[in-house]
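Subgroup meeting minutes
Present: P.N., E.W., G.H.
Scribe: E.W.

1. P.N. recapped why we're keeping a running log of single-chain structure predictions: easier to compare across weeks, and new members can see raw inputs and outputs side by side.
2. G.H. added today's entry (476 aa).
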Amino acid sequence: MSALTKPRSSGSSAPHSAGRRTAPRDPARPPGGTMGPMSANDTDASSASARPAIARARARGFHVLAKPTGAICNLDCQYCFFLSKEMLYPGSRFRMADDLLDAYIRQLIEAHDTPEVTVAWQGGEPTLMGLDFFRRAIDYQEQYRRPGTRIVNTVQTNGTLIDDEWAAFFRQHQFLVGISIDGPPALHDAYRVDKGGNPTFDRVWRGLQALRARGVEYNVLTTVHRANAGHPLDVYRFLRDEAGARFIQLIPIVERTDNGDEVSERSVGAEAWGRFLIAVFDEWVRRDVGSVFVQTFDAALASWYGAPPSLCIFAETCGEALALEHNGDLYSCDHFVEPAHLLGNIHNTPLIELVASEQQRAFGAAKRDTLPRYCRECDVRFACHGECPKNRFIATPDGEPGLNYLCAGYKAFFHHIDGPMRFMAGELRHGRAPANVMAEVARGDRELLDRLRASGRNDACPCGSGRKFKRCHGAA
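Output recorded in log:
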């Protein structure tokens, strides 16, 4: 189950120079979105200096989240950070044109010297484009696919528009579908509502059942927020037992307000996020290792094993997961779709040159180079690396800016899982199954129970909490 054998994951897994192409300026694009013409000398100089970076990007691969509808969605989830991005393109129809679809697929395939190329669709809500759009996408993939190259399509959807026809298409073309669901109905509907403020669970559930009926491979993406953070086992058991999920992504909701380091009332608290992860991990490590894959746990095991993490947020540097808008604008990251992080437009500059640009390399390196001292000296830095830069907006205990808002939760979680992670990493190194940890944890639980039964009220609790037995396990 580690990153060495990790499952396919939509919207999170990482997955050749095209000729220049000029298109009419889109008046809906923000200022700076169109790069001016370059002279032949400028192009030669730029190409020469970027050549090593381009070669590395081709060989390693990169991930692009394509947003064919931009920020447009048929729902109005109250915590969605992307809906406001509509304001970047006033007057736009928010539909990817066919010539851009053609150019994107061609450039994406040409930009990879890897045996597999991932085409990732997101939004907004990508299914608003309709099935014919995706049929054309498949046609272009077949047109440009090199012999021996495997094309993998992923789509992240709210699921409300999926019916049997969509499910049959996804099955036919082996799409991996990520479906957004926040737990049982009451927890899901707390914030995931439609434009009229109505609950959406029943519609999402119908979409999920259509996928299951057709045997479509799917992940679930669950956001953790103020409404469901206090119910970790209700959420996890629902996803596992009712939704039938075997691949789960857990995403913390962190909404900044206009007041500096404050967050919205919908946001999950740092400590609550840590408790949520710990509770789910404790259930998972006792019964589900090897049968249910939780992306955060998978990435953690990679870190303990010494392999590259499967999630960009836990990597030392980032910059290999970009976002493509409906009009061809390429941004450094899905969480940084804003003018300061606009790299250019693939109609005017080949995709691979933007991915390998100095601006993008600097963006990725900043994840490492801007870590405060508190993080650089942290004992779990190897597993965290400061998490996502978008969440680094509070101060360290000594007042240095740049600490991650979720730090306290992640630190508690990584300390809690250290023992089981060390065991699983050791099993991997010896060619054994990490799932053996379940028997090891069960043995430890039995030994602890024996020690608890033998403890006096005023003895130190054998669980290691540092409290007296009567005020710890004895109180229960």
